[in-house]
Write a structure and sequence with these properties.
about 350 residues, alpha/beta, TIM Barrel, three-stranded antiparallel β-sheet, about 15% strand, globular
Length: about 350
Amino acid sequence: MLYSLARSVLFALDAETAHELTIAGLSATGGLLPRCSGGATEDIRVMGLSFPNRVGLAAGLDKNGDAIVGLAALGFGHIEIGTVTPRPQPGNPRPRLFRLPEHRAIINRMGFNNKGVDALIANVKAARFQGILGINIGKNADTPIEKAADDYLICLEKVYPHASYVTANISSPNTKNLRQLQGESELDALLSALKAAQERLAQQHGRYVPIALKIAPDLDEAQIANIADALRRHHFDAVIATNTTLDRSAVANHPLAGEAGGLSGAPVFEKSTAVVAALARALQGEVPIIGAGGILSGQDAKAKLDAGASLVQFYSGLIYRGPELVKEAIRATRAYAGA
């Protein structure tokens, strides 16, 4: 009831203004909020980490780590912040964030707007968060695609001591040519560089920090098979499926359908879940899958696990459903025996 009132106010505002106010509010009140819970905690082992439940916050909502404690108070079993880049960048021009309430969907072309990796690390240190924290890393928009690995390595080096796990985001549609990194040769080179750096950093810090790869939903079976093969060969720790889609078929008649950017929310659910299932068949349990994309109910969260995911994440669903979705998803996925 409380969120429905807040939502009516927020939805009366421009989408990005509402987003900024929400993050500012959670940042200011985070330490004062009572911890919500979907019930008893579990001990779910994924990537060598122990998660209290299977439900996490996807990257994109808190790009700079401004509201880690406030978001964790909503009951999430893990929080993923970012995407962060080596240097600060403003992202694409506004407006760049659009709601499609009739479809419970969002289109964004934010373009990795963030304050840079050093600012994010300062926020992580200040938060002193004790839960599972993922840090999602990417490349600066003006870094040539052939030099992309350099940006990922800079970010990995800096966030490594502060993250529970790190996600390499190669699937945003809003940074020019970024999805090219999902190609067979480009992906092989990037994963090789990241794993070599991970091994060195593990020795340097005396602590192994898992690395996940975040992929797009707009992949065919051959591309998924190639990605699965690369993940196995390079002994990657997890894969997050999926990011936003460029497909507009589910919202074709909406006035905003022509806006550039990635579509998230309910319309991406089936496509992203199909990628989870295809990955599960290809990986055969060798690499854990984190299912993301279109979760707006507890049943949606369970469907990701049924398809082969071990954990789930959402962001757009939180915008439309509020904190109740977190509790509902935790209840639906508690003591799940299939993942």
